[in-house]
Fold each of these.
Amino acid sequence: MGRFDPRGTANRALLVGVSEYDHTAPDPQGVTGQLPAVRYNRKVLADALHRGGMFGAGEVRQLASPSAEEFNGALSLAVRETEGLLLLYFAGHAVTSTSGRTLHLQMRTARVVAGELPGAVSFAQVLGELCVAECRAEMILVILDCCYAGNAAEIWHRFDAPLSAKRKILLLMSVQPNRCILGGDADEATPFTREVAAVLNAGGEVGLSRLYRAVKQRMADARYKAEDDDDQLPQALAPPWDPDADVLLGAGPVRQRSGTAPGTGPDETPGATPDRNGSDSVNGSDSVNGSGPAPSTTTTPGRSGKATAPDTTTTPGTSGKATAPDTTTTPGTSGKATAPDTTTTPGTPGKANTPAKTTTPGKTTPTITPGKTTPTTAPGTATPTAPSRPPDAHPHSHSHPWLHLLARVRVVMERLGSLVLSALLALLATGAGGYGLFALIGDTAPCGPSLELRVLTDPDLEPAMRRAADAYVVSQDNLDGDGCRRGGITVYGSGAAGVVTALGERTDAWQQPREDDNPQRDIGPQPDVWIPATRAAAERARAAAARQNRVFARLETDAGPFAYSPVVLAVPERLATRVKPTGPSLSELVAAFESARPGAEVHRPDPALTGSALLATTGLYGDDADAGRAEQALTRAGRPEPSAVALLCALPADDAVDDRSAALVPEFLLRSGVGCHPADRAPRTAVYPGDVPGLEPTFVRVRWEDGDRDLQARDAEAERFRTWLTGEEGRAVLGEQGFRSPSGARDLIDADPVPEGLTASVLPVESADPARLESVLKRYGNAHGPGRVLFLLDSSGSMAGRWDGPGGGPGVLERTLTGLGGEDEYGVWALHGTGRRTHTELLPFGTHRLPEAQRALAEAEVRDAEADPHAALPDALEFLRKRGSDDERPQLIVYLTDGEDDTRLAGGNLDEVVERAKESGVPVAMVTLNSGGCDRNRPGTLVAEAAGGRCLDAADDLVPALHDEVARTGTGEE
């Protein structure tokens, strides 16, 4: 399609900002707090849209803190009235399910009630309104400035609607998936909305592609942070953009600015050239269909130790050129100064080198330290190429002469030292020695841009590899003969299993992303170096590549690891004496710890995302253990944390949980610590299982087909980093981070002293086996894949008084159904009768849409008969046992009763059912609507314990607890 210009049509912008909420903390059902910054969001964005000229009088509506009903009404009206461009903006609180598959926008009256979110509007519901047949809008842009905004992209992909309707909907999101953003300052708009308005206010024709690139660059330069100190990275979802396929959002008057490269139009980016080793440098590593994880970067200036003039701002896109004070220059220009108080448009992501900054979310304060400048380069792009010039031209020949002089002074400072330089400058200041100074300096130019090496690693290794990269970049090994830094390093982490798949099976899509297959979005830029948690991960990727017809990346794996760290059970210090410190199997350690005190919990990160968790899972599953039962031994209140770092950060959020919880993590994190918010943490001691392989980080060089533009330089830089990392200086940094020697007795590299809670030497466990890891990962996926749940609803006559309403039997079951997703299989048996037929099928077993299941429960009736749990429970156990015989998918039986027929579960009948429950391997939730049903030695308690399930009665918070049990088995809202 050509660029859509909405001028001359009926356009609408609905700006929804929820700054005030009726229910806030400490109300347990309230949202976390008010959002005063959102009041400014509505105004600054409305002003920017009016100024841009796309929306006429009355076409921009601000909706201040509406209820869900008011929001739905306003959106419906906007959909009916729009014929051109419909822009929907939302800022406020939002929540997601622990599976990350839903997103709910919380309006003024929002509350959080177990299993329900009154006062919120699901994003799927928003999409449904935008895709109605009556919608006449030609294009729809949804802008979300809220927690978990990036989750909207997956919901868009899964949303069932005609493709023609979905393609009209474009998304611009303030943060990547599964991240929560900060609330901003009370006296100005939130960072994302503030930057969107700033780009629109710059004037000229602003297309959506330019808006996205510019906002992304501005936020990267300002180093805005989400919660847990993650980078806040805006995301986008749309058809591929180019100058002729875009949506025009503004065409306001261009603000006067200087320094724009000749021939550069409003939506053009100077100097964009294809990068055959990565993606083209206009879009960098990011597909406009989304954005991959933005790596933290350590990028080098051309020369270490350069002095800068006071009160100057180094310009993105230049090689350290200074500008006049209080000016902002255009990235991509040749460092030309602009008039004070002007704003210009950011240029190409990946072309900008910005000085190191000290920032507060929402406030950017560039700081240039004399003698040390640390620019940041956008991830995934090749290092900028210096502007072409005649061979005899100086790189600053187009700048002010005094800038040229400053650049030469920097060189002299390094060569002569500050004392000699001070004397020379004194001579220059008195007018006697200027010629001598220039003769001494000669024609020496500042250093050119250095090559940027992209290093992809496991999420657990990322903090340590980042520190190693920082140390390497400033080391003497990274300086050439002129004192210029040879290279910089970008370190970024991504889910371990996804990386193995991408390097083994998706290298073509990594070079040429598609809307439905885009590793650049899902993982990050094409790496030059990969450092997996184990050598086995690299072998798995190579084995997968060998099965492909053609691969576009070749992996060159070192013969052995460069460090070692065992996977440990980190137990609270005061409980450590209850568990043997070394030797037993992990399953034995877990059992011993959980019996050490009531309520003890064992937590593990997601094995699909981090190598240490996958290694731990090999120990949990053993050789023959049932994966489902092994997973039941772990505490799973929701989606597991994405890394061991995140897990150790999350535990102190609840002191009681922290004090009674053990965590399966790499040992080195207990020494290096984790960079989360300060908190009082339970001291932990490492317990070393004897059957879990350790982390063995290994250096893997990744060579891309057609990535030969700077092949020799990139090879040399990769080899320099590898040599440094495996040498004395690299080992010292790794030792500080808590790693051990990769061979021999696996001693701590830095054992002076041995940290409290760790052991000086450990017996190494045999290295991870690639086939074993592949099998365990598959079994884990089955154990957490679509589940099977069989509900047994006591429909006997005694249930008549506990049947109607949300607290009655059918109502309780209905309120748990949101824990099941569209791929889960479930059914409902109505139990009645004591003869050969003990139940009727209320809802056939299989997959269902939620309304279908709700209708079936609404039609359920009490029968004039007794129920026979002695016959029905074994039938149900056998029913699910047969269905799970060929896989390890999670299964659950829910038996809901008033307890009146428990007399049939006594004596030999009870013993028989308990024995069948033990043998089946199917967990059973025994739910009694009366109190006392889960007292000691009651039938419900004994059957649930035998089956590895849970007993619940009226003394419990019954509905939320049962919902959690169902959600653990299913794939809905956990």
Amino acid sequence: MPDNESSVPLYRDMKPAGPVADAAAAERLLETLIQTADADGWRETLDTAWPALAPVAGASPYLAGLMRRRPDHLRRLLEAEAGDGLERILRETDALDGQPDDVRAPLRVLKADLHLLTALADTGGVWGLDQVTGALSRFADAACRAALRAIAAEQRARGRLIVTPDETRGPIPGLFGLAMGKHGAHELNYSSDIDISLFFEPRLMTLALRDDVEMQDFANRIGKGLATLLSERTADGYVFRVDLRLRPDPSSTPPVVAAPMALSYYESVGQNWERAAFIKARPVLGDARAAARFLKALVPFVWRRSLDYAAVLDIQSIKKQIHVHKTGEGLQAAGANLKLGRGGIREIEFYAQTQQLILGGRDPGLRAGRTLEALRALAAAGHVPQVVAEELSAAYVELRGLEHRVQMLDDEQTHRLPEDDGRRAAVAALAGWADLSAFDDHVEALLARVNARYGELFEGGEELDSSYGSLVFTGVENDPETLATLTRMGFTEAASVADTIRSWHHGRIPATRTERGRELFTRLAPRLLEALARTGAPDDAFRRFAVFFSGLAAGVQVQALFLNQPKLFGMVLGVMAFAPRLARTLGRQPAALDGVLDARFLTDLSEESGLTEQMMREAGESEDFEGAMNAVRRLHREQMFRIGIHALTGRAGPEAAGRAYAALADAAMRTLSPAALAETERLGGAFAGAVAVVALGKAGSREMTAGSDLDLMTLYEAPPEALSEIKGWSAEAFYARFTQRLIAALSAHTAEGGLYEVDMRLRPTGSKGPVSVRLSAFEDYYASEAETWEFMVLTRARVVWASDPAFGAKVAEAIEATLRRPRPGVDVADDVRRMRALMDRERRPHGFWDLKLSPGGQVDAEFTAQFRQLQAAAAGRPLTLSTLEALSGDPILAEAWRVQQRLAHLLAAAFEGRVDPEVEPAVFQLRLAEAAGARDFETLKVELGDLRTRARRAFERATSPAGDGDSEPPRSIS
């Protein structure tokens, strides 16, 4: 009995697992145990425990044999609390000392004790799945350590190993083993093999060996000796079957691989199934420091930041081979493979691991080795519905319990429910079922639920034809039936499309130059053509897809992504039908697609997404200023793509999209401004001052589009004589350099692309003055020199970032005070009219679709809004940055601005530079009409022209000497 009086001994804690499947077998064991218990004085223990022991004895010949052969061991296990019994077994295993012959028998006896304890605690309801698999895994760890100690002692005795037994780096410095698979995840099943990958660090091991000992040969001896000691069967049984094949290229490499060679292999030719294997890897024996260093070096291989959909296909194909070659059975309980069969454990593990491989590179929180923890993490991150995670977790626990009971019958590494009714009834009894038919029904329903969830992960078959007809692209000539099919799909130049597709099949572009790329395209081509047909503009969509696809440096990842995400594929192709800007973005930077698998991609743009914090965190993890710039560009690219998709598909209106674009710009500025300041201080030394970054224009009013640049100015404050500590720069020089670095950070093109065009000309004195302006100089300039247009600019000024929050507040106050300062003798309305007239003469609109400069266009509305803000400032009324809020008293102008802002968002998201919607596909013209509330494109043009006419008259009334707003009621464009 344990010393802790509050603990409950196992014999009192156990409950009967179920009915006794074989009463005669149980009675035979009881007779044997009674004799021993009576002789040794533990009959009361036996009598109390027997109701829970009987179902085990009646179902499992293996466990009955353990109890019969070593009744004293059974007694010791029963009279201790289960956890105490486990700790005792682990202590005794860790205490084993000596050479292989000294530990061979004790290890096997301890394994038998562990097996009996685990079975009784499991079937008796004392331990849950985590405790069962944890006990098995912890003993495997201890047994591996004991085996290595014994093998090392043998080599030490022979003089080959020259380090002492108490060496801090383990029995053999530099040599280490990784537990893989279920062992690595602490998920060992009852009769599991253990997968160990053995490696050594040559520079460390060579110091531990006698000079004439060849290192690789020595390592091989260690590996083979370890496996033999644990796995050979003796009269006492075996410890674990050991599999050393989870190493680089096992058919051509030694059992223990040099770590540098292994790392080189994984980095150059490592396979995706090996990435999946290392999800669960952990150090289990030998040199712990070397093992940790090795696993750290493998992180970029296992957890790729860019989403690798080739990995998904590769693992999916492995799974299909498992079904074809190893199972192939239906969902029947009799003979069901609980691990590899349909609806089995492997499907649940695969469900989790696949998504971990896809998403874990971007989210370290998803890298859990254990299946249940992985499902919880995926659900918490929003990648798996909570109900699905809970359903699969419950199924996993039950299937693992059944798997254990199957293995308990005879200690066999099997995962099949017996086909024989009697043996399957024994499994059912250990699982608590008396009715075999009901048990079978339950198991079949369980497998069906798992298989259904698994099917949701990879929906759709491998059809290589089309519902439209034949699609054949082999040979050197176009197939007539294929041309007819393409014509039915809506392609006007079917022969050209067929020629292009066939050239891709033949590997004429980088995306299909490899065998893998061509295999994927064979599957992708029919889906591509059908999706293009559904866009309503297949010719344009195909032409833009061809530009994107032909420009890929490699195509395996992107093709695999599209094959496994058909909804995403359709959405991207739909956008390509009328959005060459996004098509070019994808062509230049395919990694922009990474963000699509972020759980935030389709969330409402108005919801807080943690973007600024994520951007600052990833930039902060960079080693230098350029690294921070690249980190910002990666996230910026993904988010620009996300906002563009929301705008083009109608998921977000113009106000929400404008705020989202501005929030993205804010995040970039708030991340790069402190980085630019730190870089300036690194070069010139610390400086006793403060600086603020002020956004102007559409960035300031949070009304940006995909094509907006950044209008900025920087204001600073510093003591007059202050100098930087290293270079002795003055305030003007220091903050000029800061501003220049900020401009470069925001506008320079790096390997990750660019961010924004930056315009600093709206600062006081424009391009003629200093690039960064002292706050007092700013105030003086606006008090004496600034013209009305400069005050209009200031109505949309907003402090985005400041090195000192107090200074940021001071700048904001100074801007408002400047706007409210009286300007006697200035006719603001006349100035606004004159500026607009000057623009009419010198900046003529580029056709009807110039939404900004056309009479009645956005400039008329924005000038009026800024004029209204200057009026409000002079009158002491509240101010706003929003154009629509400023136009609350000018409804016609507000409507004109709103409609044209909607159109501007679509045009900017879809195109770069000027565009004529008249020549764009009808599907895009209809999208424009829908955005403006018009019935069709022709109606849109008529109603937009009318709205602009009314808006120009409203502008003229608003800025007339007595103008105080619209004098006619607004009419909707629709």
Amino acid sequence: MGGGAAGLAGRVEEAEVLGSAIRGAAEGRPCAVFVHGEAGVGKTRLVQAVCAEAADSGIAVLWGRCVRFGAVDSPYGPLVSALEGWVESAEPAEVTEVLKAVPAAGELLPSLGGFADDREVRLLSVVDALVMAIAVRRPTVLVVDDVQWADPASRDALAYLVAGFRRQRLAVLTTCRDEELGTGHPMHSWLADLRRLPAVSVVRLDRLSWDETEQQVAMLLGGRPHHRLVDDVVRRSDGNPYLSELLLEGVPVTADELPAGLPAELSGALLAAWHRLPATAREVMRLLAVAGRPTSIDDLREVASAHGIGPAAVTSALAEATNTGITVAQGAGLCWFRHSLLAEVLYATFVPGEAESVHAAWAKTLAARPATGLDEVQRQGDLALHYEAAGDLKACFEASLRAADLASGIKARREEAVHLRRAASLMIHTGKVDDEVRLLERVARANDLVGDGEASFQAWSRARELVDERTDPLQACRLLRRWADSAFATGRTRGRPIAEAEHAVELSRGFPDSEEYAEALAYLSWCQWWNNELELSATYAEEAVQAAHRSGAKAALSLAYAARGNADRHSERADQDTATGLGFAEETGDPELIWRMLVIRQNYLSRRGRVDECIDPTKRFLAFALNAGAQSVAVFAAGLLSHHLLMFGRLQESAEVIREGLSLSGLPNAAAMVRLSAAALAVRQGDTDVAGLHLERAKELIPGLESRVGLFSQPVLAEYLLATGRAEEALDLLSHTIGAQNVDTRDADELLVWGGRAAAELMGAARDRQDSRALQTTQAAFDNLRAARSTMQPAPFEPGGPADLIQPAMQALFEASATSTSAAWADAVRRCAVAGLRWDEAVASSRWAQALLDEGAARSVVAVPLRSAHRFAGEVGARPLLNQVEALAALGGIPLQEPTQPVPDEAPERLRSLTKREHEVLSYLVAGRTYGEIAKALFISEKTVSVHVSNLLHKTGTSSRHEVAALAVRLGHPPPD
């Protein structure tokens, strides 16, 4: 995602707050913003980036920096520095004017004649006069960096400036380190006073999120980083940008983890405050560092006691460390370092072997503290780490497995994967190959569920190395198939691994009743289908079904039926086969298998035009996957479900699913699908800037996104380009990518529809300009698009079966774009409505109304599609469509409001004698409807409407329908929606 200012990761909202403050100040609304946060969190860089943009627009930026101990001998130090910098950089004429307006400036600024004694001249007034004189001539930003170190005189001057805010074009920005302000520090009261003044606000910078840290790492390394490297950086820096930058010093973009140890500059920066502590407090901090995470003070006392430090000394040490900003309280009874990297630096102060006894003490303490739920998972994980560091590998292995089992039980899949990887790394010490293979399979599956394809591949690879094909061919067959699948998923192979699939079949052929043989045949069928060897695919699929029935294994039956349904997808049997395959998968409870079978089932349904049948099963699966902790497949499900919901115009539901998907981590393909749906939703709701950010991220995840098949990227990109006024780019994109859609020509047909829209927009603009050359160029490009589709089979828009209502709707949309007649658009609206494509129906309704207006149709005729589109756009919050419809309504003089029926008992006294039908007719009159429109809406004749209106006029004493409508409004009749 894009940052909040140039060269920054994240900080979008904070940069906007500062930018808005500066813009307001430039318009005569002075303000002060105090930017707070810990050291290294990026306060200075944020302010620098925002001020750089301000300077580019002609705003004067005065920058002063406070230094530690500066108050001793340098009053007004940061302000003098800021003003001297301005004198050096401003235009000479401007400097001359300002200095002329402030004759005493030389008493303040050394460069103008020396530093005067402030007993002769009130320097505070000079500071104020100089800043105001600059702000009179041009908008000005005064920055005081690290204000926590400001001398008292500078604090007074800043307070003076802020208290004097009137209509000056001045913004005051300061940065402040939170941890530098101990209890009783005078800055606390100074800040509290200033915050009570008008036009003063506070911006707090927190540490960066995982996504923001990923963006920072990409900026620093010059390329997209490996997700494990980002994990490592986040773990060790806790999202502190400065610490992250130091950690990445010398790290190449290809690295998948940080090197051991810490850079010298980082170590020195972190240890400076620790060295100022007394000896006992320093030792307590070292013991705390060995804990590895925020820990209970009671546990720290127990460990310290084992090393000869009493409870009172621990309490005193924590108080001193907290007061100096080294440690912070973390909830009830917990303590830890403000910067967790300090724990690493302190740990490095132990000589080899010295820390073993401390780890043993921590293990002993934690072993006596049983817990439940996630706390127990954490405790067992901590025990494993301490046992390992203490040299007790057997205890470490056992604790790791206990932690993994506990994590699995509470669906904490990421934690399970971590503990399993550690346990697997220790299996080499046991010498039990079969146990190690089983554990490695579990490691691979666990990492698959959390989307760590690389860790999964490594586990499958190690497991294969341990198994001898000659002595255990079935196990070798299973591992080979999973390894080959993993190699393809991680991009190690371009095409489907047919050779490996064939070898897997050969390994298991001697066991024809085994589930391994059935699964290998199903896998080979799938690979051959991707290789376009359809007859071979069907043959292997049939053999797989027979073998699966002999084995009786649910997973084998699921894979076999799905393979046959996929290979023979044009037969009626494919419907039953894909449903059967999904049913067997659901019986296994395996999220990964269920998802694969669900995708195969959905592929079949989509090709038959039964996309609406995909939504509810995917909803159920998403809930199941989230409950099971299967994040990787949950992201895929969110991407596919949100796409289908958008297709049927269910924007609010799609937004909820997208939010879920964006909160999860998954493989790049899955994450990109969610981003694409988010972009499409944002375009339809009028947030093209947000859409652009989502598309930017999707392109980072999937290089070459524009040409990638199967992610629905081309229609989303085309919709975005059209929404941002780039129809020519949209048509060019579609022309260059339609040829790759031969795997599923329905996708190619959708590109045709978008191409028709782009071409129609371009041709309309060309006609308005009377640009015949542009007309010819667009027509040629559109003809090329159609020609590319004509080379594929089946023919364009051919229905996938008798229940397919979508392809006829797509064809009607395409033909309406080409002809732009009201009859064609009316047909498109009707077909979209029948297919349930509410979004396309609403867009087509708007185009139908436009065509009717162009053809001079009666107002009442135009109103029908226009009001239909208006209702839908308002319902789903589609601002661009709403604006378009309202513009057409204004052009045709058509009221869009819907009649509102009053509650009879709550009707105004003068209207209570009306009958129910008369109330209904009155509500339509209030909404501006004609007799014909009222008759159609109420299923009565126009003559009957006239009779009801006559009764209304008689009962209310009015003389026209307009007068009775106005009376009803004055009496409190509910206004139309």
